Every structure is written in structure tokens, then in C-alpha cells.
Amino acid sequence: MTELPAPSRTVPAGPAPTQAGGDGPPDGSPRASTADGPPRLDRAEAYAEVVHRIYCDRRATPSARELLLAVAYGLFLAPGVEKGHVLNRAARVLGRDAIGAPRFERLVADDAPRYEPPSEAGDRGPSQAPGCEAPRLRPYVYRPRPTAPADNDEAVVPLRRPPAPVVHVPPGYVPPVDFRNERKICGADSHHRVLELDPRTGWTTAHWYCRRHADHAERVTEQLREQNAAAPPPIPNRGGLLPVFFKAPWEEVYRRHAPATWSPPAYGLSADDWPDPGNPPPARPRRLRAL
What we know:
This protein is mostly helical. It has eight helices and five strands, in the order βαααααββααβαβ. It has helices spanning 44-56, 62-76, 86-94, 103-110, 179-183, 214-229, 242-245, 250-257, and strands spanning 2-3, 192-197, 204-209, 246-247, 288-289. Helix 1 runs antiparallel to helix 2 (62-76) and helix 2 packs across helix 3 (86-94). The longest helix has 16 residues, at 214-229. The radius of gyration is 29 Å and the shape is elongated.
């Protein structure tokens, strides 16, 4: 892990990342200075090692990898970077997005360690929620809706029954099984949501039920009440990569750029510190001080 010096109040928080950092003009325009000079090569080997680890970390998304590489550049290669201004240089390298906002702030907020429940656990309408998962009592059979009659029932002329359709299929064709019959679930539009918290990880699993199975939803809710009350805090599943590679008071940095509702997780800020019930903990290489 690369250790960063404690960031001063010049860490980019306003519209111009370099305004208080001293690494460029307030408007963020390029200029001929030490920032545009030749790169520092005295720590090129350490930079190559960190870059290799960043690319080999499968937890890093493309945006998180871009943020980590920018910080590594400001630490090892960027010329004229004073102590405590590494994040300022990283913010200047990342630039601004299409609406002119500093990309550094958004990338740091995205790296804030947190738990994000699955999309199925969100509050959805009946047409957008997953199908009812109550047990099915009889096989599902497709029944087309009858054709709506004309406005004048007396003018409707009865027609003969159309012939059965002929479907040409290759030899050995097996018709697909409807998912409702395959999974033996109701599958109707859901209206009732029941959340289950894992007793080991605290992660959320959503169960959906239709109006016909409202009593089933109430029964499952009562069965999960004690388990959900005793569930531990959820293990984070997003962010936490900056503390993996660099040492710094990251909690202060995260609080400055993350939403106001963010709070440090109980398992620590570094993703290496979070327990993973399905996989052994990864080997921990040394972190380098960079800020």
C-alpha cells in the first residue's frame, strides 16, 4: 500500500480542482510550468509495480481503475508535485466531465465503501417487479384472450372456426418449458415485497408475491422477522479500492466527496479488510505512502 501524506484543505472540492492546490491556474487551463515538464523517473519501478497490481485487481471497475492510475501518476511520475498535493494533481489529470464538473469528485464518491442492495430489492411497481415466487399448484397453460366483440352485437356474423395452425419444426424438436412450470412458481405480477437479510453477510434478498398470495407474503414476513433483527451490518460490496493501494486519511476524503448520508462501514474502509464468505482473503502487498 502506498502511503499518502495527510491531505490539506486544498483537496479539490470546488469547481476548479487546482484552484487551491497550486498545481495550475484557477481556471484549469494548461500552462507551461513544472507540471508539463519531463516525468520523474526515480520511482518508475515502484510506479510500474503499482500499475500492474491495479490492472490485476478484478474488483476495479474501469472508472475506479482510472482514478487509481491518476493517483499513482501524481505520486510517482508527475513533475513538480509538492507534498500533500498528490490528489490535486490527480484531479487536474482527470479533468472535467461534459457539464464542467470535476471528474475527481465523482470518482472518489463512487469509490466510497458501501453496500448496494440488488436492483430487485428496490421499491417497484407491479409491471416492473419480478414475478410472484409463491409455489404453483397447477401447470401454467397459455390461454389467448378472446377477441373483443364489435360495437353492434347484432351485426356480428359468426365465422367458422379457423383451422389449427401448422408449425414446421425439425425432427427431435422439444418445445421450451415455460419458466413458471420449470421453477414451479406463480409468476404473476407482484405487489408485495419481503426483504430477507443474510445472517452471515447482512446482504438483502428480495421476495415478491402477487395479490393472490398476500397471505403467503405475510407468513414469510413473520418467519424472517427474528432473523432480520439479528442480522449483522451488511458487508460492503462497492468501492474501498483507494485504501487498498494508498495510505491516507481516506475517511476525511470520502466524507468530503461522498453523499451526506454516507458513513464509514463497520468492517473498515479498505476492500481487503472486508470478509468474503465465498473466497479466501487475498494476499496483502505493501501499500506505499503517496499523499
